[in-house]
Structures are given as C-alpha cells and as structure tokens.
C-alpha cells in the first residue's frame, strides 16, 4: 500500500537532493534555480554531507541541509524550512557566511575563496509584503553594482507559487514540492513526465514502500508537527503577553492620568480656597473702610 509522502519533510527532501544515487537530481535542481547566475551550467558535484537514513530514525538533531561542491570548486547549500520565524533571515545569512568562510584554511589566501550559493525553500511565507515567490539576495550597492560576484542567498516561497502551467525547470521543481504529496505515480500529470521528475517520484515511493524509510518519515513528520504546535503555542503566548503588557501600560497611563487629574483638582481646590480667603480679606477691608467713613 502506498502512503502519501510529502517531499517537504526534511528527511525526504535530503534523500531527494542529498543522496548519492540522486546526484543527477541535485545538479538539475541547482541549474534550474540558479540559472543565469552561474558562469556555466553545473556538470558534476560532490555531495559533502550525503543522506543517510539511519540519521533520521529517532534523531531530532540530524543535519537536514544539503551541501555540495561542483567541478569549479563553487559551494552550494540547499535547505527546506517548514516554519518561518523572526530570526530566520539571520540564520540564513549566518549559515551562508559560515560555509563561505570555512573555505580558508590556515595560511590560505583570499584568492582561493569560491562563490557560495544558498538556496532556501520555505513552506511558510517570510516576506509577506512581497507577492514574488523568488528572491535573490546578492552583494550589491544601491546602484546594483556587485561588490564581488561570489554567490548569494536564494529564497523560494512555496506558498506564493500558484502557476498551473509549468514554463521553466525551476517552476517544475516548485510545483513538485508543493504538490508531490498528492501525486499518483500511476497517473502522473504532463508536467511530471521528465526523467528527473520520475526519479524524484521514485524516491517518494521508496519512503512509502520501505518499512524503515517510512518509519523515518513518520518520525520526522511527528517531530515537525510537534515543533509546529510548540511554535504556535509560543506565538499565542507571546501575543497574550504582549496584550497583557499593553493592558498594563494602558492601566499605568490611566493611573497616571487619574493622579494628574487628582493633582489638578487639588490645585484648583487650593486656588479656590485662596480666592475665598482673598475675598474674605477684601470684604473685611471694605467693612473697615466703611466703618472708618462713618466714624469720620
């Protein structure tokens, strides 16, 4: 019996693009996404952290990104991220910088540094104010001039991709990651009728049909569901805490305004009493002057 397999689950994702037997898929994916940014199409890669299904069984801390080096020495990092959070852009930049800087060993020259490309597929929107589903971040100045053509960070926001018709290989991959769980191998749509997509579908089937692979898939899926629940609970708690803080601040403002009004009331009362005293003094002086007039 075939179980539906989501290609966005990290162990499946890494098997698709990080397994030695799927090296051709990784090359196709990198060329499809990076395209014109590359000086030449990638012909071969060495996967630096190959997929191993044993990593994922009951292991919540597995390395789930894919790292590779091509024949020109250029470096690539590919990662799937199911949940978005405020610190994610900093994490993206840090991991890119870490991979880029790790090229230099003791005594090596900066001239040995090679371009480094990071590709992130996001299941949740990160740049919500922008409708584009592809974002390419590179080292440019305000006029668009590159400081150094040494790669960058590519973001692919899957939720924003809604094209029915596939026109590029990049779109083919995005559609696969969005709809892969619903595909039927016996009745694949026209856009899946390529060698690469059939190989990708074969990888999904391996997770569905092999007991150990499906166990790894279920374990990762359950773990990621738990993480999602924790994230939602934390967001709800943060919202409640923010509302509580806002209410507390409002109460403090009201209390301050109340104290100000009380102080103003007391000031007015004091002024009223002073005016009353001045009035009484004036009346007394008037009475004294009248009495003096009578006596004179």
- Low-confidence region ranges: none
The Rg value, from CA coordinates, equals 34 Å
Mean pLDDT, as a whole number?
87
Number of beta-strand segments: 6
**Overall SS class:** alpha/beta
Instruction: Report strand order across the widest sheet.
Output: 1-2-3-4-6-5
Descriptive notes:
The chain is of the alpha/beta class. It has a domain at 10-209. The protein is 49% helix and 11% strand. It has six helices and six strands. The protein has helices at residues 10-18, 23-34, 88-101, 169-179, 195-209, 211-295, and strands spanning 45-47, 66-70, 75-81, 116-122, 134-137, 151-157. A six-stranded mixed β-sheet has the order 1-2-3-4-6-5, sandwiched between helices. Strand 2 (66-70) and strand 3 (75-81) form a beta hairpin. Helix 5 (195-209) crosses helix 6 (211-295). The longest helix has 85 residues, at 211-295. The radius of gyration is 34 Å and the shape is elongated. The mean pLDDT is 87.
Give me some keywords for this one.
11% strand; 296 residues; 6-stranded mixed beta sheet; alpha/beta; 6 strands; 49% helix
Question: Which helices and strands, and how do they pair?
Answer:
Elements: H1 10-18, H2 23-34, E1 45-47, E2 66-70, E3 75-81, H3 88-101, E4 116-122, E5 134-137, E6 151-157, H4 169-179, H5 195-209, H6 211-295
Parallel strand pairs: 3-4, 4-6
Antiparallel strand pairs: 1-2, 2-3, 5-6
């Amino acid at each position: 019996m075939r179980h539906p397999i989501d290609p966005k689950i990290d162990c499946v994702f890494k098997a698709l693009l990080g397994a030695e037997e799927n090296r051709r898929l990784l090359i196709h994916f990198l060329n499809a996404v990076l395209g014109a940014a590359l000086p030449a199409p990638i012909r071969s890669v060495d996967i630096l952290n190959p997929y191993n299904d044993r990593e994922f069984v009951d292991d919540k801390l597995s390395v789930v990104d894919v790292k590779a080096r091509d024949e020109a020495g250029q470096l690539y990092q590919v990662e799937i991220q199911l949940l978005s959070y405020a610190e994610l852009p900093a994490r993206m930049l840090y991991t890119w910088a870490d991979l880029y800087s790790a090229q230099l060993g003791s005594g090596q020259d900066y001239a040995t540094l090679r371009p480094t490309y990071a590709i992130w597929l996001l299941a949740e929107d990160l740049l919500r104010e922008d409708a584009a589903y592809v974002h390419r971040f590179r080292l440019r100045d305000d006029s668009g001039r590159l400081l150094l053509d040494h790669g960058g960070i590519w973001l692919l926001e899957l939720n924003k991709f809604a094209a029915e018709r596939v026109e590029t290989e990049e779109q083919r991959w995005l559609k696969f990651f969005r709809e892969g769980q619903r595909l039927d191998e016996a009745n694949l749509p026209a856009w899946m009728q390529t060698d690469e997509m059939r190989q990708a579908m074969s990888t999904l089937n391996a997770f569905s049909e092999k007991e150990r692979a499906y166990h790894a898939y279920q374990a990762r899926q359950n773990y990621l569901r738990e993480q999602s629940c924790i994230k939602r609970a934390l967001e709800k708690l943060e919202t409640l805490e923010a509302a509580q803080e806002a209410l507390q601040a409002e109460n403090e403002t009201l209390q301050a305004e109340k104290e100000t009004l009380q102080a103003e009331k007391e000031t007015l009362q004091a002024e009223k009493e002073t005016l009353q005293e001045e009035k009484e003094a004036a009346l007394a002086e008037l009475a004294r002057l009248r009495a003096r007039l009578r006596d004179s």
